[in-house]
Amino acid sequence: MEEKPLILITNDDSISAKGIAQLVKSMQPLGDIVIVAPDKPQSGMGHAITIHDPLRLKKSNQFPGIEAYTCSGTPVDCVKLAIYEIIKKRPTLLVSGINHGSNAATNVLYSGTMSAAVEGAIEGIPSIGFSLLDHSSDADFEAAGHYATIIAKSVLENGLQSGVCLNVNIPKGKKKALKGTKICRQGRAFWEDSFDKRNDPFGGEYFWLTGKFTTTDKGEDTDIWALENNYISIVPTQFDMTAHHLISSLNEWDLKK
Amino acid sequence: MEEKPLILITNDDSISAKGIAQLVKSMQPLGDIVIVAPDKPQSGMGHAITIHDPLRLKKSNQFPGIEAYTCSGTPVDCVKLAIYEIIKKRPTLLVSGINHGSNAATNVLYSGTMSAAVEGAIEGIPSIGFSLLDHSSDADFEAAGHYATIIAKSVLENGLQSGVCLNVNIPKGKKKALKGTKICRQGRAFWEDSFDKRNDPFGGEYFWLTGKFTTTDKGEDTDIWALENNYISIVPTQFDMTAHHLISSLNEWDLKK
Known about the structure:
Helix content of chain A: 10-25%
Oligomer: homodimer
Distance between the termini of chain A: 64 Å
CATH class of chain A: Alpha Beta
CATH architecture of chain A: 3-Layer(aba) Sandwich
């Protein structure tokens, strides 16, 4: 009998988020599940790892009948602990999310959800990050969960090229309103930040980071376009950040000592 | 008279690290300097931003005669605060480092130093991250500083294509032992992690993340190879993480609902 796939599930909104509960439900038909998720929200942690503090790991009863742990660290810490300390091997598949909020375009860089998937790719594991374009803690994850199963099943069947994971973003709304999936490139965008300056009760100044997501990328092949047009965006995402096309022109520079 | 370039300096080892002091010294001949650096070590913070906590920003006297600030957040927070709150414009150049320790190969993803440079690139600023292959707090930064001036000067003269920054790593050792610069691709590597498991005085279990940097990438065009052979490695690094070469094959997948 063929062994069932072992699916590692993590996220960045913590083990108690609605999004990870949906992801667990969506992965259950596909294999055996192990969950290692942060014990508190870790949004915006990017590819951070914990090196100046010790990590705590606890068994969790959040999902009865499923092996689950919480970790005091970041999503990338969760992946490392899962592989090297808990299951002590590479899982068949790693899925992260479903994130409460978009990780499209340049958000991939700030995203704990996607950094967990990128870490999976570095470790040679077929990995997918899922995000729903709804920050609400009570968001409706039904359509996202439906597509999570379809896409994860395809990755199990087709595999993923080494060095690549998938960044999947799902528009808000009911399943019937969605137009299906679209393979995209990462849209060019940035956060036009602003800082909300306040004073604490003791007169000390502090800032809250806020911002407006801004793009001038009008391409119809981007995840931004797909999501605006009610498609689920799928961006093949690699951890090789080399701008290969610039190597030859940089070789023209005179950098002699 | 031509205006002097405005150079924003940050790092991840904190404003009191030896590496940033060298970088300040190396940039002084090239333009006017503003420093915004973390108030404590922020190594391994990757592209993390602070969204669940307020940020503190303080004037610093660390470098007499130079406008300098410390920030309670991550290196990326420092860049955002610098651009949107302090200088309220894009600087001519952003330099980050000089990091105490390598940011070559996949370390670029975990690195706060390089994430600050990548954030600069997202903001459209020519940006460079510098790292010395020596973790010691008292490392000898002289050779690294020499090349930092040369490379930053070249970027000011030649510019950098939009969407790209430079990841510069410098081998440990004296200037005369170095063979010069080499334009490289990011080497494929990963951390074979292990966790040092301990018990606190109250019986609670905790872990320290440790690991062994591991590569099977034998290419002579990688930063790993260059550094092992005593070259300064320069990797043009982009924030577009799309695996463009996979878009057409993923379009073959059947992902219909």
